[in-house]
User: Fold this.
Amino acid sequence: MVDKGFGIHGGNLGDLASMAGIPEDRILDFSANVNPLGFPEWLRPLISSHISRLSSYPDPHAGKFATAVSKFHGVDERQVVPGNGATELLYASACVGGFKKAVIPVPAYVDYRSCAERAGLAVETVPMEERDGFALDLVRLAGCLDGGEVVFIGSPNNPNGAVVERAGVLRLADEKPDTVFVIDESFGGFVEGFQSTIGCGRENVVTVVSMTKLFAIPGLRLGYAIAGQRLADSLRAHVDPWSVNAMAQAAGVEAMSDREYIRRTVKAVRQWREEMAAALGEIPGLKIFSASANYILARLEDGDAAKLARGMLMNHGIAIRVCHNFEGLDGRYFRLAVRDGVDNNKLVQTMRGQLGASAPAVHIKKQTPAIMFQGVSSDSGKTVLAAAMCRIMKQDGHDVAPFKAQNMALNSYVTLDGREIGRAQVTQAQACGLEPDTRMNPVLLKPNSDTGSQVILLGKPVGSMTAREYYGFKSVAFETVKQAYNSLSAEHEAMVIEGAGSPGEVNLKRHDIVNMRMAEYANAKVVIVGDIDRGGVFASFVGIMETLAEWERRLTAGFIVNKFRGDKSLLDDALDYTLRHTGRPTYGVVPYIHELGLPEEDRAAVHSFGGNWNGAKVRVAVARLRHVSNFTDFDPLMMEPDVEVKAVTRPEELEGADVVVIPGSKNVIGDLAVLKQSGLFDKIKTMAAHGATPVVGICGGFQMLGERIRDPHRIESNEGEAVGLGLLGVETELLPEKTLKRASGTHVESGLSVSGYEIHHGVTKGEGVRPSVLGDDGSLLGAASADGRAWGTYLHGVFNDDRFRRWFIDRLRVAKGEAPLGEPRIRYDMDASLDRLADVVRRNMDIGALYKLMNLT
Assistant:
């Protein structure tokens, strides 16, 4: 007695799941021979666009599909008969000729006999021998034919995958004109160089093709037969009207134009089949038969295939096809579908264990548990939630590290070894209690124009590239990414990975190395974050899922609603709708967190402050540069209760400012030109000349305060040099070698200690220059004007020090007649902010469910 899950067909997930006691989506199904690539990416949007047609009857003759098939094969449209899968056409073929019997070479697809018997035909079988690899002997077959019969031939044959020689079949058809030959080529599309009988010109040959297998649509079902005019008309008469639904017809038309998908399928199946067959062939007691399609026939030398199948299913959730009901095969035989390399390897290793074979001595890379936060868009909050998850896991005793494959940001940081990474991963590293490491952000892109960026690999610049140039470089970049991830993840218990932008950006998916491709490489489940404060978050969740390929959907676990204000119970209906529409749960609704006190991720934040002055005691105007760099320098100032920071782009916006600050820039000469065009350049010079308003420059802004900037090597722009504001007696020359280092020193006027990091290409010098900041090693970290009203420094993070920041603010207060406050009013304490963030997120997100996704307790 064979379990119902090992019945006459493979792929019955309901029965298999019932037997195994696990959900259907946890079955690793090797029993059904469908395309391991999954259905094409165009199928989901195509089906979605045709949903409205479900209210109308489909074309009963599937005319557009038949036309597409005729064009694909170069045959008359009247020879094409569409069907609800190949099986319907096989059953119709048994009825078309008043046959006296059916002849079936065996072993073969079990429904050939069912077709014949349902048509009332006697069945004669022609054995194919194992010693011949179950190849069809056409001479032996010919001896069984005397006219008036129908012959069913599988090519490639199911279950063994052998291809029948086209020329031999056609010779036999010519020799036996009164016999009808039904050639089932359902798996021919998987075979490299396959020679079909379609278009052979024989009136007694019917060729049946399944699109269900090749395009991975068994739930949709589609096939077609091609025959001479008389047989085609008879077939149509035996096919039920409206048997091909509207969705299947639309899919079929599109499929017939997608030759690239078929090409990729043949290439992938050949590689995976050969690797799989070789690995299986090394298992003692197992015989593997040569095949050319997307499945492999195997035989146990001594054993019960049904027992093996039960063990694989019950213990590991892996389904294989027992071949006991293929005529000519006994209980030792089983068939395995070819899946992708990862699944195939799992099958082989599991089968080794089931059969008691020792595993070969191979090194298996540690698979570190990982979770990934991606967003419906940039600035959706994935960076902050990744940081929160890092801190929560650290609090729970896990050794966790952050990772982002590629970051596009002008906000960077220098590590202890003098390399550069994105500022966001620095925050996440601090959340983990780790020193920032370039492996956490192996690719950093720093835009230096509207169409190009400086490319930084593992903390070191490798050059500037246009977007098109970088696309060509991405294969190299991804190798660096994978090596960095392997190295970093091997040192930690778990990983929290951040994506970039959105996985739904269909124009970028082909070149992706940071979202789903990274999740696939790390075997990380993906949670998609949406900012409800922007509106449209639930439409975004649904829309994202609609843009994902099936392999991407399998990686996607669910959603997080971020930045919510109000009563969460009001979202219940929307959360239920999202679950029904996508099949994915929402793992949390995180409230809007005011004054978080953490650095912003990218340039979006520099545009988030502005407008009119709001009455604060100290007003700080920051020139809004097109290529602003490291604007987190101003985060501590924005947290102060008596300070207002405003970004300015026009001269009139400087009115009322107590200080003007020029920030860092990734294109100093270009941004200097913008300052001149906007009028800010002249306005700042005038304000400084009158001595009423101090001017401060940081890094690139420091360079702009000088007399001149030279760029002889065209590091940042195509301009050779530019005249600066002339507020400091220094000149800068931009050099190819980039300065990247941590630094600390003393602010000369205040006598207070300051620290931070340098990131710049320039060397700045001047005769008898007055220092503003002196390094601990005596180096010049900045310069000041003679009256001290204008000063600059290369030190990013100079305002992070609480005592210096308060001195700086109090000096501005005194200048306008306000009393100094003396002691710091806030502590710029990221650890406290991270703990507060973690506390809020822990209360509003299902952390236990996320741990379960990672297989962590």
